[in-house]
């Protein structure tokens, strides 16, 4: 397996920023237009602070079992949750990405000076990290389409059945990203914080349910998966 490294250009809007806060742009435009101006300023500032980097690798699945996957080159991924959700897949795609540390460092400085401005910039970082994750998922979907393969939904460490201290080290050990850009704490948390990781099965049976359908917040969550919105570009 060869890990590919990308530096995509993201598109992030004030609507994305407010969605990360659990709010709606149209409502705020009518009630709090000054907040919309602050969000636009946060987007402009934030875009100059991010350095998006994504690592993607695809491995053949040699054997699947109830407790995990045996992958090519001797790699293993121990997770009953991933094994269940990628059952029947031929390959496993792994993705890891970060915006770099500057946006979160700057947002923390803003929080100390002006809580609202700091919150806006932090929300921009959350929205941009989500956009970067969608960009990576789109790349994997494109790879799958080339082979006419169905894919699973992204599966991330932090699920109740796949804790971060188990899942993150496995993803990092396979993709081996540059430690100066992204690394793990002893508890399995990613630093910089505005980062993501996930895996996707390629060659899965069609019709797999969205992970949102398994969540007890699925009816009210503002981050629920939307199929008609994309805020990234290649």
Structural write-up:
This protein has 234 residues and is α+β, with helices and mostly antiparallel strands. It has a single domain, classed as 3-Layer(aba) Sandwich (NADH Oxidase). The protein contains seven helices and ten strands. The chain has helices spanning 14-20, 25-31, 33-47, 80-85, 102-113, 115-146, 164-175, and strands at 4-6, 9-10, 53-65, 68-71, 76-78, 91-98, 183-184, 190-191, 195-202, 232-233. The strands form three sheets. Strands 1, 3, 4, 5, 6 and 9 form a six-stranded antiparallel beta sheet that branches. The chain has a two-stranded antiparallel sheet with strand order 2-10. A hairpin with a 4-residue loop joins strand 4 and strand 5 (76-78). Helix 1 packs across helix 6, helix 3 crosses helix 6 (115-146) and helix 5 (102-113) runs antiparallel to helix 6.
Features:
10 strands, alpha+beta, NADH Oxidase, six-stranded antiparallel β-sheet, single chain, two-stranded antiparallel ribbon, 234 residues
The CATH architecture can be given as 3-Layer(aba) Sandwich
Shape type: elongated
Measured by DSSP, the beta-strand proportion falls in 15-25%
Task: State the helix count.
Answer: 7
Q: Largest sheet, described in full?
A: 6 strands, antiparallel
Structural class: alpha+beta
Radius of gyration, in angstroms, nearest whole number: 18 Å
Task: Tell me the name of the CATH class.
Answer: Alpha Beta
> Based on DSSP secondary structure assignment, what is the total number of beta strands?
10
Distance between the termini: 23 Å
How much is the average pLDDT? 88
CATH topology: NADH Oxidase
Low-confidence stretches: 216-223, 225-234
Roughly how much helix do the residues carry, as a percent range? 25-40%
**What string, H for helix and E for strand, traces the elements in order?**
EEHHHEEEHEHHHEEEE
Query: How many structural domains can be distinguished in the coordinates?
Result: 1
């Amino acid at each position: 397996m060869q890990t590919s490294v990308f530096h995509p250009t993201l598109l992030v809007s004030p609507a994305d920023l407010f969605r990360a806060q659990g709010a709606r742009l149209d409502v705020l435009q009518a009630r709090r237009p000054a907040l919309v101006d602050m969000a636009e300023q946060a987007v402009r500032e934030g875009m100059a602070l991010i350095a998006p980097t994504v690592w993607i690798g695809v491995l053949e699945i040699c054997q699947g079992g109830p407790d995990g996957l045996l992958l090519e080159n001797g790699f293993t991924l121990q997770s009953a949750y991933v094994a269940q959700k990628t059952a029947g897949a031929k390959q496993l795609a792994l993705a890891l990405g970060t915006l770099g540390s500057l946006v979160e460092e700057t947002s923390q400085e803003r929080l100390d000076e002006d809580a609202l401005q700091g919150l806006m910039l932090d929300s921009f970082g959350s929205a941009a990290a989500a956009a970067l994750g969608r960009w990576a998922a789109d790349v994997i979907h494109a790879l799958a389409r080339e082979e006419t393969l169905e894919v699973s939904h992204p599966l991330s460490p932090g699920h109740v059945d796949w804790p971060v201290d188990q899942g993150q080290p496995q993803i990092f050990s396979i993709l081996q990203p540059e430690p100066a850009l992204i690394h793990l704490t002893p508890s399995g948390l990613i630093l910089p914080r505005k980062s993501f990781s996930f895996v996707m099965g390629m060659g899965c049976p069609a019709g797999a349910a969205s992970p949102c359908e398994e969540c007890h917040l699925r009816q009210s969550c503002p981050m629920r998966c939307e199929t008609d919105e994309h805020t990234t570009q290649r």
